[in-house]
Write a structure and sequence with these properties.
This protein is an all-alpha fold. It is built from three helices and no strands. The chain folds into two domains: 30 residues; 52 residues.
Length: 117
């Protein structure tokens, strides 16, 4: 009987070691997969960060185009003011309330309305 117990025990040990060696590679592969998945999706250079940076780049490119257009319009206004004295006079009259020496400016102030009873 002692021979049977040792034989059964030997068989049980072989079976247990077979199960352990069979599970170890699977666990390592699964662990490696999760690590790669985390690095791909998360982290400082992950997929989510990449998508966010791409959207921000598109927004900044659109803003850059608008600022270039605005800058071009302002440059045209500067050139116009440097070359056209009529434009300068118009701005001086409208925005600064200036007049020539021989002109008189009349300002009409509307009467305040009487409160209704």
């Amino acid at each position: 009987m002692a021979f049977r117990l040792s034989k059964n025990r030997l068989l049980a040990l072989r079976l247990a070691s077979f199960k352990r060696t069979w599970l170890a590679p699977e666990i390592l592969v699964l662990l490696g997969f999760f690590v790669l998945l985390f690095l791909f999706l998360g982290g400082k250079n992950g997929l989510f960060v990449l998508i966010t940076m791409h959207r921000e780049k598109q927004f900044l490119n659109k803003e850059l185009v608008l600022l270039k257009q605005k800058n071009q319009i302002l440059q045209q206004n500067i050139t116009s003011l440097k070359q056209d004295n009529v434009q300068v006079e118009k701005i001086a009259r409208e925005q600064l309330g200036m007049a020539r020496q021989d002109e008189v400016i009349y300002k009409f102030v509307p009467k305040p309305e009487k409160p209704s009873r």
